[in-house]
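Write out the 3D structure for:
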Amino acid sequence: MSPNTCWLCKIFRAEENGISSKLCLEEVIQWSQSFEKLITSKYGPMIYKTYLKTEHSDENIEFWLACEAYKKITSQRKRISMARKLFTSYIQPQAPNEINIDSPARKAIIRNIQEPTQSCFDEAQRIIYMHMERDSYPRFLESKFYQKLKHSLQNNGNNSIVN
């Protein structure tokens, strides 16, 4: 198998990723309509993350998804724990997966990290969303990665990839 298609096999191996249904051409085409459609679709975030790894910027989607999960935490104890993990992984200077946010957003998080609220990462998440939407999303749509995925679905008889 060529290295160009290896990612496809990894993504759709149900035992590794828990994917038990199909990725269809309709969903993949909808991703080109807007970044929001990509990021809120069933498989879009995972496919986009795989692409971002090729750009060495997958920390952006990881942070954005972690923020989405963080907002759903209702326990204050769990929120504090998750906030500290987000901070040490993505926000603090020299973090292993440091994201590109402006100084005011970073300072606001540093001020609020001791007693984090549900919305304390909202501004940083908004900035990262804009980075992805403006920078890497247009490149994703033009990439061989996305084009090959779309082409493979178009050439498949039932327009879907089954695991």
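Residues 35 and 133 are 6 Å apart (CA to CA).
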